[in-house]
Write a structure and sequence with these properties.
Blueprint: H1 13-16, E1 35-43, E2 50-56, E3 70-76, E4 82-88, E5 95-99, E6 104-105, E7 116-117, E8 122-126, E9 143-144, E10 154-161, E11 166-173, E12 187-192, H2 214-222, H3 226-234, E13 245-250, H4 269-275, H5 279-286, E14 291-297, E15 307-314, E16 319-325, E17 332-336, E18 340-341, E19 346-347, E20 352-356, E21 386-387, E22 401-405
Antiparallel strand pairs: 1-15, 1-22, 2-12, 3-11, 4-5, 4-6, 4-12, 5-8, 7-10, 8-9, 10-11, 13-14, 13-16, 16-17, 16-18, 17-20, 19-22, 20-21
């Protein structure tokens, strides 16, 4: 697995740096401690190169995009992310249109979305696998086609929805009547995953000035996107970091961290769900009469392949509850849905679910400009706490987090 580093800003690490793996017990020294346990939270998500990908094509048979025709694609993105696309210059042996690496720039230096005409981002490439006159096989590196202005043949227009952080790219074939009139083949597109410090793939689809690959060759020579789509599907998926986890030992049957179907209580769950900051909820829980101890596992974001843990003290009959942020979201958190006996042992991941705190408007996980990952603040909403559904293709709980008690 790739070693991924996430910006500490994504979870307000400065605010969390004061936490340790030790107990933050709110009781006095007279508490009857019958046993000690260790709870571990592990990030088991598999990072993928792309957070979103897809294809586009014309409406005719065959589904090419003729001069004068347009197609549109919708995708989500946050600051630093870019859109890469590729489609064949149909009237050639092996030329293709593609945006410059790592893709079309979507935000300016101030973090504002770029909209309108971005045709200057498209370039025309020679795949280097066929002679441009004879069509005979050759073996040359991918190079820009000289003396052809791609932006005169293809118009690109961007629109942006600030609430959803969703872009719409409209591609129009404007080659009609030019010396380079051509249809466009069906094409592919992708948005690279961002880990808080860099894109996981900064050269999507191909490497300029290097030999081509089978996927882009099929597009450049035949307008066939099948191989590229297979590769994209295998390398596209939502990933996330986790925040330090808050663990509470308590008496009774009511989980003190949250109540499903109720709005956020203002005790501090919102701060965990939006920014991974446990301080407010930690302090709130310590003042509750049924809470016997509050503990924090970790002091920095938990990246894929890493884990954090904490010891906790409990007595027979006590229960435990926990919460940690789904880092690449606007306001989601993992928590136990079922009550857990404090004396449990082993893997308790099956008792864990992914929840929406209802405090911030959702955007595509890992591609929303208002997410803490991109230094944003969610747009406020006031909805009840609910389980995250299937609107976004989020990996199953057990493919993201593992929780064990020993």
């Amino acid at each position: 697995m790739k070693k991924i580093f996430f910006k500490s800003i994504a979870f307000a690490a400065a605010a969390m740096a004061t936490f340790t793996l030790s107990s933050c017990d709110n009781s006095d020294n007279t508490m009857d401690v019958s046993f000690q346990k260790t709870i571990t939270f592990e990030n088991v998500v598999t990072p993928k190169d792309f957070v979103e990908s897809g294809s586009f094509q014309g409406t005719g048979t065959p589904p090419i995009i003729l001069p004068g025709q347009s197609v549109s694609i919708k995708f989500s993105a946050g600051k630093t992310q870019a859109l890469m696309f590729a489609t064949m210059y149909g009237a050639s042996k092996d030329w293709f249109f593609a945006s410059q690496q790592p893709g079309i720039k979507l935000f300016d230096g101030n973090g504002n979305a770029i909209t309108g005409d971005v045709s200057s981002s498209v370039l025309l490439w020679d795949n280097g696998t066929k002679d441009n006159i004879t069509g005979q096989p050759e073996s040359k590196p991918i190079m820009q086609v000289p003396n052809v202005n791609a932006s005169q043949l293809m118009k690109l227009n961007l629109a942006y929805n600030n609430v959803t952080s969703e872009f719409t790219l409209t591609i129009t074939n404007t080659s009609g009547g030019t010396a380079n009139q051509t249809p466009f083949s069906p094409g592919v597109w992708a948005v690279s995953n961002y880990n808080g410090s860099q894109l996981l793939n900064s050269t999507p689809f191909f490497m300029p000035n290097a030999p081509s690959n089978p996927e882009i060759t099929d597009i450049a020579q035949m307008g066939d996107i099948a191989k590229m789509m297979t590769k994209l599907n295998a390398n596209t998926g939502i990933m996330t970091g986790l925040s330090p986890a808050l663990v509470v030992v308590y008496k009774g049957d009511k989980n003190p961290i949250y109540e499903l179907g109720k709005t956020d209580s203002g005790m501090g769950l919102k701060e965990i769900a939006q920014f991974g900051n446990v301080t407010k909820l930690q302090n709130s829980l310590k003042s509750m009469p049924n809470v016997k101890g509050v503990y924090i596992a970790g002091n920095a974001p938990v990246t894929p392949g890493n884990k954090v843990m904490t010891n906790f003290n409990a007595s027979p009959g006590d229960k435990i509850a926990y919460a940690t942020m789904f880092g690449f979201s606007n306001d989601w958190f993992y928590a136990n849905e079922q009550n857990i006996d404090a004396n449990s042992k082993g893997d308790i991941t099956s008792k864990t679910s992914l929840f929406d705190s209802g405090t911030g408007v959702d955007q595509y996980p890992g591609a929303g400009n208002r997410q803490a990952l991109f230094g944003g603040t969610p747009q406020s909403e006031n909805m009840v706490i609910s389980k995250v559904g299937t609107f976004y293709p989020v990996p199953p709980v057990q493919n993201v987090i593992k929780v064990t008690v020993n």
